[in-house]
Fold this sequence. Notes:
The chain is mostly helical. It has 3 helices and no strands.
Amino acid sequence: MLSARNQMAHTYDSKDALQIYYRLSFFVPELSNLAKKLQQELTDGNNP
Length: 48
């Protein structure tokens, strides 16, 4: 995920953009897990 972000952050190439677009579905499980962890932190009152 980080490499995809870095690839598109500095230069734009439509071919590269399409490759990343087609890989977005692979990021969903990781982002979903992150969202659950963050929500749990807020629910438990462990936020700073």
